[in-house]
Every structure is written in structure tokens, then in C-alpha cells.
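Q: What would this chain look like folded?
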Amino acid sequence: MTIDKNMSNEDYHAHPSISSTDVKMVAKSSLAHWKHKKFKESPALHMGSAVHALVLERHLNLVIKGPESRRGKAWTEAKAAADFAGQILLPEGEYEIANAIAESVLATDVGKRMASESTINEMSVFVTDPDIGLPLKTRPDSYWPQNGGVIYDIKTTLDASPRGFASSVGKFGYAVQQSFYQHVLRLEGLQANNMVFVAVEKEPPYAVGVHVLSTDYVEWADKQMLASLEKIKRAQDEDTFDTGWPSVNVIEIPRWLEETPEFED
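A: My prediction, written as C-alpha cells:
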């Protein structure tokens, strides 16, 4: 079991242990989708990473302003230099937006907590699950060891409202992510009784919503998370990574269509 408070984000992601992203993919899609996944860079991913760095690791100067666009020789050269230095390069406009989003988070009480010296940000935790036998890893955005252990997770989103973010929780598997984070930290011997999602919108006014999951939701997610870990272990042992879909699927008539009134000639 290991805790590394200084590991880079790149080194963490390169480590072969099972992560929350792996478990979410198995829970929401299939073993086949997880086995053949490919990492793809995107402007949205860069923006999310930049906001995290500006909130949690502002002192490291990880986010830098680039040319106006991602086109041309100036961008190519600046990107190569940023990659070499381990920095995140953003076009001018996106750089300003990322800073505005980060400032919106830091202006809240929960943002101040994440930026305080009492929290541990971007620590990498590696354990082996003694029951399932899989090596696991997690890297919580921010961990506050007081009050039973609180994990804070920043999410950039289009809709941080109670209704909007509840939809995102289901769509992106955030409940399973929470269960996995808590599971790994507890195996490491750390308290992790609560997790707080800090959702911030990507457009003005960069509104921030703070969300926690109900006890029932977490209990459901715990079962999904453990079942997914067991699927991964069994698939690795048997070297079989399929979709789990039936050979032929029968699609039933939707209830709403079945209840549509018939029209007489």
C-alpha cells in the first residue's frame, strides 16, 4: 500500500492499477469497452484539467496562456514546450475562461477549504484489494482528513443545478466513482466517510453547485462498484472480455407506444 503526494498526473495515469474510470466503464458499458478503451485528448479535457490545476495546484504554475488558436506554427511550438515542461497550454480565450471558472470555485466556502493547508490535494493512493486480489489506484482531487474524512471532487459541467447535476451523476457514473474512491482510501487505512461534488458551470456566471449523494444512492453504488471489480478480476483470470450482450436481443414495444390510442377510419 502506498500514498504518494508528489506523483505527477501523467505518472499516475500511466500506472497499470485499476482506476475509478475503469470501474465506471465496466459498470456502465461492458468489459469489452473497457478492455479496448483509448485515451483521446480534447479541448474539453484540457479545460477540465486546467480548472483542477488552477484550483488545487495554483502555486505550481501548471496552466499557461498560448496563442489565440490551436492552429499554426506558434501553437505547435508552444504546445511542444508546454508538454515537455508538464504544463497545460490553453488558447488565450480558454485561458481566461479557465481562470474565471477557478476563481468562481475559490470564492466559495468549499473552494476555500480545498485551497487550504489542512487539505491534501492530488495525492495518489495505491492498494491491493485483499478480497478480490486486484491492484487499485485513486487520485482524489482534494482530501480533508477531519470530520471522518471528506473527499472533494471538482466537476466542470454545463448545468450545476440540483436537477442538472443529478442527471450528470447517472450519466457519467459519479456514484460508482464515489464508492471506488472511498473503498480505496479505506483499504489504505484512511477515513473516507463523505464525498462532496463541487460542480461548476463552464459558461458565465460560472455558477457553483455543491452536491452530496444520499445514503441509499451510495449503498447502491457500492454494490455496482464491487460487482464491477469482480467482473474485471474474473475476465482477467479467464482472459475473456466480452460485452455480456445476448446473441440476439428482442426489443419490446415501448410502454408509451403501447398506450397510444388507436384511431378509427
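The mean pLDDT is 94.
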